[in-house]
Structure formats: C-alpha cells, structure tokens
Design goal:
The chain has 16 helices and twelve strands. With about 425 residues, the chain is an alpha/beta fold. It has two domains: about 280 residues, Aspartate Aminotransferase, domain 2 (3-Layer(aba) Sandwich), CATH 3.40.640; about 130 residues, Aspartate Aminotransferase, domain 1 (Alpha-Beta Complex). Strands 1-7-6-5-4-2-3 form a seven-stranded mixed beta sheet, with helices on both faces. Strands 8-9-12-11-10 form a five-stranded mixed beta sheet. Helix 1 runs antiparallel to helix 3, helix 3 runs parallel beside helix 11 and helix 14 packs across helix 16. The termini are far apart. About 50% of the residues are buried.
C-alpha cells in the first residue's frame, strides 16, 4: 500500500480482509500450527515455504502489524519484538558479535545506553559514544576497522536532541556500515529516516504507536537499501552460509530487501525468544489506526505547554525542539517539518528539590515511568530511568539533575496549562 498516504496506511496496511473475513486483524492466540504432513512443516523449517509453525518465531497477527509499520516507514521488511529494548538489541546483534565495534550517539534513552555500554560490552561488543552535535571529523574519528554499525535516536529520550540523520548516514556509509535510527518519538508520521539515508529503523511500539499504555512492544524495519554484498567481509552472517540454519546464505535466498529481517527472525528470535504476544500486537494495531490524529494533538499540546513554561518565572529552562530558540530547531524543521513529538523537558527554579515539589503538586498528570501515551505524565529521569548512570554519563546523555520530563497527552490544553500553573505554585 505504498501508494497511499501514511494516515490511510495506518488504517489499511498490513492486512486486507477477503470476502466474509473480519475487518479487524484476527488475534491468532495460538502457540503452534497444524500441518497435514511432516514434509510440509519441514519446508517451513528449511525456509523454503511461507507459513507458521511456532509463535516464538512468527505469528500471523504479529506479522500483519509488522507489515503495517513497514509500510509506514517505507521499508521492505519488518518484525515485531517483545519490547523496544529487544528491538534495539536485535538490530545491533544481528550484524555485530564478539570482537566487533559500534558507534552510537551518547544522547539516547538511558536503558539503551546501559544495554550498549554494559550488557553488550559483556558480550564482547565495544561501543564508542559520540555527542549528537559532534563534527563530521569527530564522528569519523570514532570509527575502527571492526565497526559494524552506527546508532542514534531521531529525537533522544529525554534529552530531546535531534539527530542529524544525513550527517550520521554519510559517515556510516563512507565506512561501509548501516545507520540504525530509533524513530520512537517522532514516529513515521513526522519523520521518515529512510528518506534521509538511514538503513534500519527501530521503535518502541510501547510509546505513541500503542498510545494507551496497554502493551509493551518493539519493531525493526529494514529499508532494503544497504548493500550487504558490497561489504561481504564485514557481514558474513548475512553473506555466507548459516550453518545453524541449513547452510542458507540470506542475501542469496532473500535478497537485500529480506535478508536482514529473515536472519533476525530465523536466528535471534529462534534463540532469544523475545516474541510479542499476539494480543499485544493487536493492541498496537488499534493504536496505529489513530496514530496520525493523536500525534497531531500531542504536538500541538506540547508546543503550547513549552511556550507556557518558557514564559513562567519559576521555570529555569525549557527544552523543546519546536521552540524557535532551541538549538535543534533548524534540524527539527528539516527532518520533522510538521512537528516533533509530545515530550518537553524543563527545569524548575530551585533545582532537584523544587522539581520534586512540582511533581508532588500535580493532580491531573501522573508520575510514571511511561512516556508518549494519551494521558499526560511526568518523570524525573536522574532518579528513575537514568539512575544507573553516573553524573558524567548523565551529562553526556543530556540529562541534568533538575530535568523534568513532561510527556504531554491529548487532554484539553487549557486544563493542562491550569495543571502546570498550580503545580509550579506548589514548587515554591
């Protein structure tokens, strides 16, 4: 359905019912699938036929939702995972292993930073973190002969830095590696990283795509544009026979458009089992149907909130890429001309203690670890989501001790302004 606009694809892509079939994506809540012969099932195991045999690898509900997200991003293949963390892990581990190296922006979600800097380091994969505002020369200097990928967030959580996708893609491609972009915050409604040179996109579908705090999930989308064969020595897992899966060479069997996602499914999902429940995928699909409407409202409310906070005497600073004075305003206008996201970060005059009083004074908004759903919520990252990071790492990630992350919902904007006013009054 690439011929349709994103708002139409949000409703119709991924699943086309036949005559007499349900209009909604069916929930195939089954772990296994029956076949008439062992040979028929064997063809599935050999990747010689299409179909399903065990939900740990693939499930029709999951695949139909993945196809919708694939259409929204303009990719060639996609898969769902059990969480955004699993998506980012699979995206890297699918092409990097022990002894390899990855370049990543330092301004990324704290959980992802810890995944890369601690857990994957224990697996023998080394990461070099660069500032999102680094010069091209500084970015070039981070590469090594064993570098296998570059990673960044389109809009960083919670620093709200905007990735210069073209610059990072240009450097990645000059070194023969793909650029992976986490597009969770802007969503494909407001940013299409593939149009700017990115090769692989990830999502935490838990956020705006679901939109109602119903279901944890993740997604990986492949553009199908990166030529793995051109750099065959760098990516033997894709370009040489996989002895763990009947000697298949993924690029030969599935082409550039399908090799990466097929390998991630046949190898990583098989071995790690980070599979979303079909019911959760169904919830994500319900959220996707209203995604364009909600994103528009989120951004309008966030813009109003940011402008209000910027004018309030009890607010020390405001960070929102939609404000003209923001250092990322120009990049936001380039990559996300119709809006950025519904997340605003700011500091309350008086530092950490005043921020705590502000949060305690909230009545409508929730103090929650979640972000990017229909209801407004707030968080103090330094003491919650980013508490595993030391002060130096916090600063590198763009998170100060007084930072309050405000995820603006789709409530009436006047009610939200009243809410923030009374909470700031309580922060004296």
């Amino acid at each position: 359905m690439s011929e349709y606009q994103p708002s139409t694809n949000c409703l119709h892509a991924g699943y086309v019912p036949g005559s007499g079939e349900p209009r909604n994506i069916p929930i195939v809540q089954s772990t296994t699938f029956r076949y008439a012969t062992g040979e028929a099932m064997g063809a599935l195991f050999d990747l010689e036929a299409e179909g399903y045999f065990y939900t740990r690898l693939q499930n029709p509900t999951n695949d139909q939702v993945a196809a919708k997200i694939c259409a929204l991003e303009g990719g060639t293949a996609a898969m769902l995972t059990s969480s955004g963390q699993a998506a980012n892990f699979f995206a890297i581990f699918n092409i990097a292993s022990c002894g390899d190296h990855v370049v990543a922006s330092s301004a990324i979600y704290g959980g992802t930073f810890n995944l890369f800097a601690v857990t994957m380091k224990r697996m023998g994969i080394d990461f070099t973190f660069v500032g999102p505002d680094c010069t091209e020369e500084e970015l070039e200097a981070a590469f090594r002969p064993n570098t296998k990928a570059v990673f960044g967030e389109a809009i960083a959580n919670p620093a709200l830095t905007v990735l210069d996708i073209e610059k990072f893609a240009r450097c990645a491609h000059a070194h023969g590696v793909p650029l992976i972009v986490d597009n969770t915050f802007p969503t494909p409604i407001h940013c299409r990283p593939f149009q700017w040179g990115a090769d692989i996109v990830t999502h935490s579908t838990t956020k705006y795509m679901d939109g109602h705090a119903n279901a944890v999930g993740g997604a990986i989308v492949d553009s199908g544009k990166f030529d793995w064969n051109r750099y065959a020595d760098k990516f033997p897992g894709l370009t040489t026979p996989d002895e763990s899966y009947h000697g298949i060479t993924y690029t030969e069997r599935f082409g550039l458009g399908g090799a990466y996602i097929t390998k991630a499914t046949a190898q990583l999902m098989r071995d790690f089992g980070a599979t979303p429940a079909p019911m959760n995928s169904y919830f994500v699909n319900v959220g996707l149907e209203t995604l364009p409407l909600r994103v528009e409202k989120h951004c309008a409310n966030a813009q109003a909130a940011a402008e209000f906070l910027a004018s309030h005497p009890k607010v020390a600073w405001v960070n929102y890429p939609g404000l003209p004075g923001n250092p990322y305003y120009a990049l936001a206008r380039k990559y996300m001309p119709d809006g950025t996201c519904g997340v605003v970060s700011f500091g309350v005059q008086g530092g950490r203690e005043a921020a705590s009083r502000f949060m305690a004074g909230l009545k409508l908004a929730s103090i929650a670890t979640h972000v990017a759903d229909a209801k407004t919520c707030v968080l103090h990252p330094a003491s919650t989501t980013h508490r595993q990071m030391n002060d130096e790492e916090l600063l590198a990630a763009g998170v100060s001790a007084d930072l309050v992350r405000l995820s603006v919902g789709i409530e009436d904007p006047d009610d939200l302004i009243q809410e923030f006013t009374q909470a700031l009054d309580a922060a004296k």
